[in-house]
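ingest -> validate -> predict -> emit
validate: passed (alphabet ok, no gaps, 244 aa)
predict: started
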Amino acid sequence: MEENRPENKPKFGRVLLKLSGEALMGSQGYGVDPAMASRIADEIAELHSIGVQVAATVGGGNIVRGISVSAAGMDRVSGDYMGMLATVINALALQNALEKCGVFTRVQSAIEMREVAEPYIRRRAMRHLEKGRVVIFACGTGNPYFSTDTAAALRAMEVNAEVILKATKVDGIYDSDPLANPGAKFFEKLTHREVLDKNLRVMDPTAITLCMDNRLPIVVFNLLRRGNIKAVVMGSKIGSIIET
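emit:
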């Protein structure tokens, strides 16, 4: 079937883009770089223009990371809730950048805050996607101890996304950090089970297990190379793919 797909037709019709909070920092050391948010929005807008339905989750590590503040002595649950609130700031920044590109966007939050975001309702999210709106999911799953990786896997399956696009700062999956180890081994293709068995730090084990149980593929690619998001969706062999 893959061989019969026209070259100009996307490989995936509905995707879940997983962004880290750090992705929005750009060259800054903290917070949101408007120029980086704008660049990411431009690339999402490209997908939107060719009819791809896009949902996204964004982390909060550029502002606060729950597990880090708990390691410094803060209560873990309080730290995780702080991290969830940080994701709302990032989601609103990305929404603003997308709307400047002319893309209608909705932010849905797992923690209710009606003044700034819709509550997460699965059917409403799917309806937004069907109407051509980008949907950004904030506040993770709404529960402490669950990462935004797990939230991305959960939301992707709930809205029937065909793939998770995991945006990173490197070209894909390696057996160690390629920025620290130039000799790190690159993996072009892995199964979910291999990721777990090799203890590769791609996404947390809960997220990988959810994707494995539901046969949801994950593509890990370099966000810093402009055009990679569209190229992955169009079927180019970029980054690493995890599939059963």
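Residues 2-242 form a domain with the Carbamate kinase fold (CATH 3.40.1160.10).
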